Amino acid sequence: MTEENILIQGEELKKLIRDSASKPNSQACLIFGAGASYGYSKEHFYKPPVVRDLFNDSNNVVNQVINRPENIFIKNNKSDYTRDLRNYENDLERYLSSFYAQNKEDNLFGRFLQYLEDIFFLASEDVITDSTNNYRTIINLMWSLYGKGRWSCLSFNYDTILEKSYLIADRDTTEREFNSSKSYTGLIPAIVKMHGSINFRYIFRKPFIETDQKTHTTHALFSKMMSDKSSSKDFLRIIGLRQKKPNFYSYQQIMTSEKKIQPVSHFDFPLMLIPIHASINPENVFFQEQLELAKRKIKNSNLIISIGYNFGDEAFIDNLSSLDFLNKEIILVDMKSAFSDTGKYSAFQRISKKWGNAKIKIFDGNGFDEFMDAV
How far apart (Å, rounded) are the C-alpha atoms in residues 80 and 78? Predict the structure, then answer.
């Protein structure tokens, strides 16, 4: 089956979605990638940059972040980063996997990671509240077709635009503030952040040593986070959507069980899954939990709509390969404007090899806006 004979648009697309929703006990799963946040609104002044534009200061987010004093190193080397990313076909995770492996003794990887964190925080600071917010529109559509209990979201994005748009839609009567694990996956509909998020924090303390702040590189801390096999409740903290970016390091004094004051070094690190292409094995139980949650949601869904996601996470694709896709409809919303130089229909090429019996349709349009207009 080729891409060209499975294109779908207009009334056929609308009918497929509504027919699926009308079946008894049918469920749906939305998958959001970088292209979804990029295209969630034409009006967004701080539009999140796609990977190829991470250092392009014509983007308002990049322009503000890259000119901050703490990012001067990134600014001075942006042409090198842009070229290197292009050599990896703008696959951020694959590029950072290599970056991580090659820079073990210094803080280059850490600087890059903190730059990304700045980007996502600024892009998430304010969101569009009106009808041009496509996240809000699709949430309203799902409530109308599936009600509260028959759909879920998987997001591979580090920003918090989806969560804020969900609250703006104001369809849910549940007290939901996205400041706890329960608020994400313990309520219905579940919202699973597959690769973590800027507001998901890896927190740990250690006995204070004078040189802690200087000697603990973010590379070393990322390695510690990714190899942590302890229960996620022991290290995971989720901060509110309106909170500022936390300090990476702080000196604290705590009261021990013996009622003694003990000085500790406190590290607050973004729980984001970056290197996924075999540089390191993600042993962190949090990410394993997200994979299992995603598998259950996909297994129970008859309709899967993927918006702006290129299915670059091989662990995610492989984890689902044991499922039966025979009776599942998959709609891919390709972000041509965002991913034009990474190969047309790359998402189809990746999943059709692993999920061969799935009924895959590709929306014959460009991006989130046109898809919402069509449905």
Answer: 5
If one compares 344 and 349, the residue with the highest pLDDT of the two is 349
110 lies in the same domain as 252: no
Nearest to 142 by CA among 133, 127, 152: 152
Phi, psi of 352 (to 5 degrees): -65, -25
Tell me the three state secondary structure of residue 119: helix
Instruction: Return the closest-CA partner of residue 311 out of 2, 32, 88.
Output: 32
Radius of gyration of the chain (CA): 21
Q: Are residues 189 and 154 in the same domain?
A: yes
Any residues with CB less than 8 A from the CB of 313 and at least 6 apart, and which? 93, 156, 194, 195, 276
Q: What is the pTM of this model?
A: 0.93
Q: Which amino acid is at 369?
A: D
Cis-peptide into 189, omega within 30 deg: yes
47-77 pLDDT, tens per residue? 888 888 999 999 999 999 999 999 999 999 9
For residues 348 and 360, the answer to whether their CB atoms sit within 8 Å is: yes
The number of domains in the chain is: 3
